[in-house]
Amino acid sequence: MKFRKLGNVNVSSLGMGSAGTFDIQGNPAIEIRRKIIDQCLVEGVTLLDTSPMYGRAEEVLGVTIAGRRESFHLATKVWCSGAETGKSQIARSFTLLQTDHIELIQIHNLVDWKTHLVYLEELKERGDIDLIGITYGYPDMLPEMMKIMKTGRVDTIQVSYNINDRFVEKEVLPLAKELGIGVLCMRPTGKGSLAKDLKLTPNIKPLQEYGIETWGQAVLAWLLANPTVTAPIPATTKPTRITENAVPASLDPLPPELKMYIEQETIRCS
Prior knowledge:
Blueprint: E1 3-6, E2 9-12, E3 15-16, H1 27-43, E4 47-49, H2 57-65, E5 73-78, H3 83-96, E6 102-107, H4 113-126, E7 129-135, H5 142-149, E8 156-160, H6 172-179, E9 182-186, H7 193-196, H8 205-208, H9 215-224, E10 231-232, H10 239-249, H11 256-269
Parallel strand pairs: 3-4, 4-5, 5-6, 6-7, 7-8, 8-9, 9-10
Antiparallel strand pairs: 1-2
Helix pairs in contact: 1-2, 1-10, 5-6, 9-10, 9-11
């Protein structure tokens, strides 16, 4: 597993999201999530992303990393309006995640960001968190995201970015590079559609010598070929998917000709 800088923290170049996949209950389902975390340890995946808006995800993540918290970098979010409500939500995240330190807290979808940013800066000053981030929900929020980035008060952004979703390429990613802001990529495989919903089967052969064996690996490798990207954070319900996804994050970045090939083959097969 290769590592990249997220602000001043070295994290795995593959993260794991928990939206929709860790919002579960019952021992059998929790045990599967524990096995997913086991596999993260095996493959060197350290970055785990969650949020209060993901149902029981924070709680389940806290349970499944218990006893091995020090092996991971946790990222969660604040998603509400009002200072006191935000403080309460953040305190609950610490409790559910069973930790007294969270590496990254992000202001989700920029909701009440001016209010929350002040408190997050207090937490960072106290050493309770290492990094402050922001996320967005829709492309029309990108101008405001860039405005916040330019204040110098945030360390990371989380954006929707994949071969078919490239709104951030023109201005946001160049700005992140210029300012040294870490970039996490949600929906890196289009919620799986870039690997499983293609009309034709992509020809993987030109990528096999490089170590790529599945199209899911190919689209993650495409993302990681961009040095501004810190880590894609795909979610999964299968421990074996962690192993599959870790392959491109363990390779050197794709050469330009293979990155272009993946783009062209995705278009051909869509």
